[in-house]
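Recap quiz, item 2
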Amino acid sequence: MEEQYDPKKIEPGWQNEWATSNRFAANETPDAEKYYLLEMFPYPSGKIHIGHVRNYTIGDVVARYKRMMGFNVLHPMGWDAFGLPAENAAIANNTHPARWTRENVEAMKKQLKRLGFSYDWDRELSTCTPEYYRWEQWLFTRMFAKKMAYQKESHVNWCDSCHTVLANEQVENGACWRCGKQVRQKKLKQWFFKITDYAEDLLSWCEKIPGWPEKVTTMQKNWIGKSVGAQIRFPIEGSTRVITVFTTRPDTLYGATFMCLAPEHPLVRSLSKGTDQEEAISEFTERMTHENRSDRSMINFEKEGVFTGAFAVNPMNGRRMPIYTANFALMEYGTGAVMSVPAHDQRDFEFAKKYELPIIPVIRPDGVSIENVALTEAYTGDGEMINSGPFCGLENRRAAGEMVEYFEKNKIGKKTISYRLRDWGISRQRYWGAPIPMIFCDKCGPVPVPDEDLPVLLPEDVDLPVGGGSPLPNLEEFVKTTCPACGLPARRETDTMDTFVESSWYFERYCSPGCDTAMFEKKAVDYWMPVDQYIGGVEHAVLHLLYSRYFTRVLHDLGLVEFKEPFTRLLTQGMVCKETTYCPEHGFLFPEEARSRSEKQYCTKCGHEVVVGRVEKMSKSKKNVIDPNALIDAYGADTVRLFCLFAAPPERDLEWSEQGVEGCFRFLNRIWRIAGLWMPLIKNVVPYDGQADALLVEERRLYVKTHQTIQKVTADIEQRFHFNTAISSVMELVNMMTATDAKKAGDLTCRVMRRAMDTVILLLSPMVPHVAEELWTRMGNGRETISKIAWPSFRDDCLAEDAWLVVVQVNGKLRGRFEINRDADDDAIKNRAMSETNVARFIGDTPIKKVICIKKKLVNIVL
RNA sequence: GCCUGGGUGGCGGAACAGGUAGACGCAAGGGACUUAAAAUCCCUCGGCCCAUAGUGGCUGUACGAGUUCGAUUCUCGUCCCAGGCACCA
């Protein structure tokens, strides 16, 4: 095997081999233990980016490893194919979203195949096909029947640039998650999924999915935002009506001195009617509706409010509490009304200072008197109740409980739990999505499309409006229909579903992707689900992952699946980053636009010195991207895969380094060379498999190292997916092999060498499958694919080296080291330690207090 | 402000259960081979100190304390960085 390592020559052949033999097709085999490995499917943007490569490489290693471990592995891939970019691209390129999407899928599939991922392509699915969204529509009608899908008019997040509404989760810092434009409030009638019904269940199960990173479950918990408190009813002076507030601090009720209502609160206008505040209120609420929500939620937003002219009565002490409307009160949370306790809430405190409202402390910190001290900020801690009638003197937390009991007895209020989570708004005023299968009839109201009329096909013969927005409302033949209930003319819903709906059940669809009688075959889902290992970016922590958990519960309660949690284990891989280069004149530069000269870099356009900026997430705008295709051309898929795994552990950010890639390429070359060098000697030799003791020193070292490496690599993959350290240990083994002289090798050495060589190839095969297959075959193992070979196992009796290296400390400081036979006892080790010259020097005449001896490791002599 | 991570050589990163800090790789420097270069191979590589150059000494894992025979690892406090949430009553 004199030829050089040339990935171009070997990779396509193996990819072809895997494809034609349908090697990675998965079947339900009840007696085999299943393993469902899933990576988040991509949006077909047209090109695989390096983040995908990393994500899918990690997944592929696990899939291939689990197969070698004997699992029946399901490893599918598909396309999250509905979505806005297709519409924008279609307008820009004068094509159709369907065509644009189809072409992108083809291009990306080709790229994925070039990377050698072991997918079961028979299960490929695309969410924009009627075969897929038909069942989503079917589910929608079932959810409608259960009132799990409902319509309501409300203030929604509207993105002007995307011409559509967004769910709360899809607004980041007041901006659209997709395009980054500021979102504004708009009143619209929309379809919602009642995710709030599952708030408690979703929250409590966060504790029951230990295979998820704590970071993600914490983010979900925060998003759900459970608060335990009470609802309290306040009578309105001179009225029979009451205002109900939600508070987490019922213990502070005696300190409530005023009240704030959200500007949208229905009582605001009616209370002010006829008072001299009417005009001011009207002006204020009008202004607030124009104020966009993102501005209103800015931290430095000035607290502002207007007196309504009315008063509420504190049910405990009869205090008159002026009712305000305030910009910080949110209609969507709690009851839209707040009892304000300025002494114990910082926000209320600031408001009270501004409008000169009374501040009455009702809790004092232990042993501190605050009654007659002017407060500079609210006291939010615990303490002893004061100014609180019969509750004075109690510890405030206890008082809270007793007061809630009192409320319930006297019908003043009750214990209540509030969640931050809102229902999931799924209507999108866009074309390229799954039509919502509803019909509006003047007589019957909203009527679901009957099963036999599903799917409601998305019409393909349309012209997209150039300014954006959906063509569907103007498409007569789509809109006009008849009511399935009464047969009279009716109108079709023209909104489409949020694309996060498709991705909330695709993992179930993979189990039986061709099923045309149901969403999925129950038998297949029962076998494969839940997903054993899910891998993807952390950016979906509260979007896709929360929606998917919710959907699984819906399916569970419809009796369609047996489980509640779709993903048993979750790995969120870090971003791929690269250093940026910036020219003061030309902005960010591509690497090839900077020339280096004497340690510094200069812009090729203007000669300015270039600022080598910080390492940042790869993005087109920063010009620090790299193209996977070009990399594969230069180094081959195996090198690209290897680098993605070697440069950092998967959950951490990965810093891209061209030189690092080069290093990985060199490593594969080195293996190729050693294999070539030893091939004539070991090709027809039986790998050594006996005891280590029967070998000579050098052979034994290599043999033991081989077994140690198997142990280490197995543990690294099994326990933590730390492929970087797994690869390091294989490198160590290879280094030892390099040091073995082929010219002096006897029969036994060759057999040990063959064992080492086989081990290296097998251990690396999930990571660099092409070169592994090639070497495996060339070693004379036939053209049997390597993934059918079992993962190597190690012998416990071959892990121990002949001698232990023991280090000696005196008073905890390292003073010497020696090797000693592995069956030496403690006394022998201690004696040997004391006799070390350098050690003896430090002991001198000082009496020894204590000697600590850790077998195989160290001796510490304490003076 | 709150919640999660994280801070180790010139760089990416190791150290599994409190026991040799810096595995493995990159970069750098030196050498071998070569007419030369590339490739390859070998050596050195945290900092400082020493007439003894060693199996040498001191110091070193953001900073300051503590527990321990021994701390990158455990505890407390401080600083910095990244991500998430943020007027949620």
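Residues 658-682 of chain A form the longest helix (25 residues).
The longest strand of chain A covers residues 149-159.
End of item.
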